[in-house]
Design brief:
The protein has 10 helices and no strands. It is mainly alpha-helical and 213 residues long. It has 2 domains: 49 residues, Homeodomain-like (Arc Repressor Mutant, subunit A), CATH 1.10.10.60; 147 residues, Orthogonal Bundle (Tetracycline Repressor, domain 2), CATH 1.10.357. Helix 4 packs parallel to helix 7 and helix 5 packs antiparallel against helix 10. It holds the Pfam family TetR_C_29.
Length: 213
């Protein structure tokens, strides 16, 4: 007697459905922001229905929060995988600067999601334990890197890891979010391979001069 193959556990189906919804929502929110995003488009792209979206995420606002949490978790997880503690301080810092630049270049939706979150004064992540935890780990990682550099005499003491991270993020963030106006104002194409390489070299040099003993 033939037996029917076992059905996949319902929990795996639920996880797969939520993953599809989050992926579709990320595209929609990064393109149109929270206000312009449409749940019916998210449902269509996720091959789900609106009722299912609201079952898992309660509201469009809650879905936006989950997308933001995933976005911050993704970049923070990737940073942890750089294994900076295995490298000499200067090499480790350069790797972090280059990683941040390349992450923004390859993940433009991250920048637009952050822009959208700031338009709403970060209310969707203000109480997020996920964002708090991954951000704390990142600041600790940068702090330990700076401490190692001070111990070897390569970095000056007293550098706040939060301020350093803001600077590393800002010099890449501004470049990419203003690439269209910048190309007109400065009369050069800021997105050619040559321009991008020139800029990341400038960024690395700027950060190294900032921290050097």
């Amino acid at each position: 007697m033939l037996t029917k193959p076992p059905k996949r556990p319902r929990i795996r189906d639920a996880e797969a459905t939520q993953a599809r919804i989050l992926a579709a929502a990320k595209k929609e929110f990064s393109k149109n922001g929270l206000g312009g995003a449409r749940v019916d488009i998210i449902a269509e792209r996720a091959k789900a229905n609106k009722r299912m979206i609201y079952h898992y995420f309660q509201s469009k606002e809650d879905l936006f929060q989950r997308v933001l949490e995933h976005a911050y978790s993704d970049i923070r997880t990737a940073e942890q995988k750089l294994d900076l503690e295995q490298l000499p301080p200067r090499e480790a810092l350069e790797r972090l600067v280059r990683f941040t630049w390349n992450y923004y270049l390859k993940n433009p939706e991250f920048l637009t999601l952050v822009n959208s979150a700031n338009l709403h004064k970060a209310k969707h992540i203000k109480k997020s334990e996920v964002v708090r935890q991954v951000s704390t780990r990142f600041v600790d990682m940068v702090g330990k890197l700076l401490d190692r550099g001070v111990a070897t005499g390569e970095f000056r003491s007293g550098i706040d890891p939060v301020q350093l991270n803001i600077t590393i993020a800002a010099i890449g963030y501004y470049y990419f979010t203003n690439r269209y106006t910048g190309s007109i104002v400065f009369q050069r194409d800021l997105m050619t391979p040559e321009a991008l390489e020139e800029r990341i070299r400038f960024n690395v040099d700027t950060i190294m001069r900032l921290v050097q003993a």
